[in-house]
Amino acid sequence: MTPRPSKGPISKLTDSLRSKAAGLRDGTGSQDDEHGHRIGLSPSRGWGRRNVEFIGKVLIPQAVKLRRGRERSLEAVDVPAGKARVIWIGHASFLVQMAGLNILIDPVWAPWLAVVKRAHCPGLSLHELPRIDLVLISHAHHDHLDVPTLEAVSDGQPIIVPKGVGSLVRRRGFGSVHEMGKWDSLRVGELEVIFTPARHWGARYVHDVHRGFGGYVLRQPEVETMTGGAATTVYHSGDSAYFDGFHEIGRRFPIEVALIPIGAYRPVSGRGVHMNPEESLAAFRDVGAKRMVPMHYGTYALTREPLDEPLQRLMLASSSTGVRHMIDVLEPGEPRLY
Fold first, then answer.
1. Which domain holds residue 215?
2. How many domains does the chain have?
3. How many Cα atoms occupy the beta-carbon half-sphere of 226 within 13 Å?
4. Which of 102, 123, 218, 322 is a plausible cystine mate for 234, CB 3.0–4.6 Å?
């Protein structure tokens, strides 16, 4: 099993947040189901005031700013057996190269999400990607499932989605569509994909609350067997609020690197649907990963916190809890081998 970080201040933070999550479960209209912990759609009091604040202080100012960053060229390399090469595209989008496959997770190259302008260019050019062997979608929200991007990358390969999401990606050029529920697994070549629970919601609009949501664990079981467990396992949490399910994921799988969201924690709705950076660190502690790659920040201004605030808070919290050396902050387009 992967060794966990030693006990320290973050352990107390984890225990505190686990209790808080249990208490919030009744107060936010969430309920347990086959996907994990589904959060209700009703906004909290003050929704109108927060909308005005968001439009005036975030949405309009961001719309007139120039996009930051640039698209990079990706050097082709042979990834060693049992290893994984992780490239952050931006937001929750990743290219993961492992088990001889090129895997895209939540690919979104959209310059705009409706009226929300992309603040940072994608890390890689959409049209210079290596051939994609597999696509994974964590849930149907527009910042995770972008139809034009999917149609651009589809080339007869399989796509994996949560239960209830398949109708959105069929007839988009994929060879097969696989819907998965909590703890379901699927083998693609030498890769095993396991669908993990989350605390979120899956509706793309309002009426389609039946759509699932979750994350993925990517394993290399053949290499694990041959080497006695010395193979990189990657975990992409999808979107999630903090909940005790992270501990169960860590109990089941020896995770090397965890891709965990740190932003969008001040939504206009007032609902607790994402983690703040301190909660993200607690989730990292729970899953027992050796390394954390932060995501879901700095790309789209979806909520009221400043774009740069999540990373600043993460750096402060990780330093104060003694785990800064375990946090890998990737620039969009920057590859990292694990």
1. 9-39+135-328
2. 1
3. 8
4. 218
